[in-house]
Amino acid sequence: MNVKSMRGRKPLEAGFSLTELMIVIVIIGILLGIVFSNMDVLDKANSQKAEQEISKFKINLESYRADNGAFPPSGALNALVSNPGNAPRWRQYMKSLPKDPWGSDYRYLNPGSHNNEMDVYSIGPDKRAGTDDDIGSWRLER
Q1: Distance (Å, rounded) from C-alpha 125 to C-alpha 102?
Q2: Does 13 fall in a domain?
Q3: What domain range includes position 117?
Q4: In a domain, 35, yes or no
């Protein structure tokens, strides 16, 4: 190239154009949307799993009561797995006690605190009892 043809040209400018920046921002936004929507799906799946396990506990506790005349005392969910010694017609109702989806033990109250004969519940993802995210047998009866 000769010097005359280079005089009319602008030097290349460094950096990105506004269009390129907007495209990158939109792509990042889409990726964040996908990630956060998947987190909602995971939270919902964990809640549904807890509800299903609580339903199983309720069925097994009802079977225990039918066989032995009363529910086990408060806090004694292990009576579904091993004979507590005071159940005349005990049988193994569960092979083991599962943890809730957030790694905590399920809790059991007899009598229940929600106008029920008994309550089985998970303390939920915040791992604190008595908060709005608790998932309990009283929610399944609505």
Answers
A1: 6
A2: no
A3: 22-140
A4: yes
Give the C-alpha separation, 17 to 39, whole Å: 34
What is the number of structural domains in the chain?
1
Contacts made by residues 128-134, CB under 8 angstroms, sequence distance 24+: none
Give me the residues paired with residue 10 across strands: none
Residue 71 forms part of a structural domain = yes
Cα–chain-centroid distance for residue 108?
18
User: Scanning the structure block, which residue is given the tokens 């005990």?
Assistant: 90
32-51: pLDDT as tens digits: 888 777 777 788 899 899 99
Q: Is residue 131 part of a domain?
A: yes
pTM of the model: 0.71
What is the per-residue pLDDT across 87-117, written as a single tens digit (0 to 9) for each? 889 999 999 999 999 999 999 988 878 767 8
